[in-house]
Amino acid sequence: MNYIDVAVGLITRNDQVFLTRRKEHQHQGNKWEFPGGKIEKGELPIAGLARELAEEVDIKVNSAQQVDLIEHDYGDKCVRLFVFEVANFSGEPRGAEGQQSTWVKISQLQDYPLPEANQAMVDWLQSCLKKSGS
Q1: How far apart are CA 115 and CA 109, in angstroms?
Q2: Domain 3-132 has CATH 3.40.30.10
Q3: What is this structure's pTM?
Q4: Nearest-angstrom CA–CA distance, 55 and 19
């Protein structure tokens, strides 16, 4: 199977996570997503994450920890998602490419339509929230 490798950032602050909205013409258009993007050939996932988050949401990743690796087949394309928690960053996240963006309480993520492959990330975030007692 030919996978598209993607770095995904779970940008967290307290009990919230940062989401951006995919543009209508994009794959999975109009759905909310955890920001990130394609990893370039020869690029390490963490480097791809830092580059994509700088471009897409205008933050500098100070440190990030990989928390998952998800392979998902959408039927029309297969993705391999390198998922990182990004709690240490500089700058204030925003939709730097004109996309909608928002901070969402982790407990309210079910109110935002996300791509199917993102459900494991929602589960992970919500399990961490329960462990922290928030």
Answers
A1: 12
A2: no
A3: 0.90
A4: 15
